[in-house]
Amino acid sequence: QMQLQESGPRLVKPSETLSLTCSVSGGSIIGQHWNWIRHSAGKGLEWIGRVYGSGSTIYNPSLESRVTMSVDTAKNQFSLRLTSVTAADTAVYYCARDPAGYYWFDSWGQGTLVTVSS
Amino acid sequence: DTQMTQSPSSLSASVGDRVTITCRASQNIGASLNWYRQKPGKAPELLIYAASTLQRGVPSRFSGSRSGTDFTLTINSLQPEDFATYYCQQSYGTPPHTFGQGTRVE
């Protein structure tokens, strides 16, 4: 059974860069679609973007100027970078798998709370 | 962006009840609607995709239907583990693929 686990700093200062990694076990990252989704009190659940196993990406237009996603096939991991963060980026961040490329999400990490504060 | 409006925002129910949650899309999304259950402190779990297809391993008491831009999640015979928050999500066309604001079943 596929398992996903987020890791990264829980506290980020305003204007700095949020960086998270999702480690995938129980299956290969290659040939699948991997997503980042966040959940905040202000905006609810928000899809951030998707990276394919080959490295191609598509992002939420509202975040596109600040987001970069990448894959590391050797480590079976994929990553999120969000630059110039503000308090509005405080949220629980989830990584999730899209099994068929149709933007529904069948496997999720447990989520990690990232707080933006000085 | 397509807006997804869920109703009600919360409801009270008892074990054994039949529960219905509705999600309305602000424009045509075909059958590209998915439902999730989120228990407190846990990640969302996929229940139904493409409006009415039950995800593997999900109990048959869950069902989904569509009428135009209105979508319904029905839970027959509510179980203790079903007291949670439910979200719809549209997956039509190009992103962003937006979520509803949630329905809390308590």
Protein architecture, described:
The complex is a heterodimer of chains A (118) and B (106). With 118 residues, chain A is mainly beta. Chain A has no helices and eleven strands. In chain A, strands 2, 4, 5, 6, 9, 10 and 11 form a seven-stranded mixed beta sheet that branches. Chain A has a four-stranded antiparallel beta sheet with strand order 1-3-8-7, with no helix packed on it. Chain A is globular, with a radius of gyration of 13 Å. The relative contact order of chain A is 0.31. With 106 residues, chain B is mainly β. Chain B is built from no helices and ten strands. The relative contact order of chain B is 0.33. The interface between A and B is medium-sized, with 22 and 22 residues.
What's the shape of chain A? globular
Report helical residue fraction of chain A: under 10%
SSE string of chain A, helices as H and strands as E: EEEEEEEEEEE
Low-confidence stretches of chain B: none
What is the β-strand count of chain A?
Answer: 11
Number of helical regions of chain A: 0
**N-C termini distance of chain A:** 39 Å
- The average pLDDT score of chain B comes to 97
Tell me the major beta sheet of chain B: 6 strands, mixed
* Mean pLDDT value of chain A: 96
List the main descriptive attributes of the protein structure presented here:
heterodimer, A: 118 residues, mainly beta, 7-stranded mixed beta sheet, B: 106 residues, 6-stranded mixed beta sheet, 0% helix
